Amino acid sequence: MNIKNKDSSFNRFRALPMINWWVTWIIQIGVGFYLFYITGLLTHDFSEALNVLKSESKGIVLVDTLGRPSVAKKVPMNISDPIFKKVIINNIQHYFLVDWVSLTNNYQNKITTTADLEKYNSKFPEFKEHFLPKDNKKVKKEYLSFEKYIVYNITNDNLPEMISVTKGRLTSYQTQEDTFTGKVVFELIANIYNSNADEYQTKRGSVTFEVEGYFDSTEGDIINPLGLMYTDLKTAILTKK
Question: Model confidence over 112-123: pLDDT tens digits?
Fold first, then answer.
């Protein structure tokens, strides 16, 4: 009796898929549609990723202020490369080396305050806006001290009338990932007006800047495309005395 019952149960179990064949087909069709849907999603995501990769692997189109386009090649940012040293040297030279003639537009503008300095020389507010981190109060205070020192030397007739750069170099440069520390030295020739002798005299000298900062292209813009940011500035200017 028990053997028959077991055999009967086994036969019923074997016959179950045959009896409910329509249920089995519905499940198989459902699974097939699900797999088709998932495969479609993966294919779409892969296609989008491939398109992004192709787009990113192409060059960058640059447009200058005159509307002229040019294509630049993308390369990994490695700030230990010598080109980044040149970027820092040129940046310091442009924004920090000053003389009386250029600051006052050939003596046409009177400068007695830092507000005057920024009003008549756009490079000072430009530097603050594009090369100093917005949340770094320390470096902003250091830059303000630099501006005040320039004004002080103008009002005390201690700023050279004209200067020219004979050499600029980084005497030290250390990097760690995207951050750097460096010392920039400029050798200068200054033309100084001697009011007592009523003549111009030539003075040779040098100025040293100690800087710390980082490169972050996500913080860059059209003025500062590499995202050069200073976090510490020890500045200097060449004076008459």
Answer: 999 999 999 999
**Tell me: the pLDDT tens digits for 156-174?**
999 999 999 999 999 999 9
CATH number at residue 146: 3.10.450
Domain that holds residue 112: 77-234
CA distances from 82 to 22, 71, 86, 218 (A): 73, 22, 7, 21
- How many folded domains does the chain comprise? 2
User: What does the DSSP assignment read for 95-144?
Assistant: HH---HHHHTTTTTS---SHHHHHHH-THHHHHHHHHS-TT-HHHHHHHH
Q: Has residue 65 been placed in a domain? A: no
pTM reported for the whole predicted model: 0.71
> How many CA within 13 A on the CB side of residue 142?
19
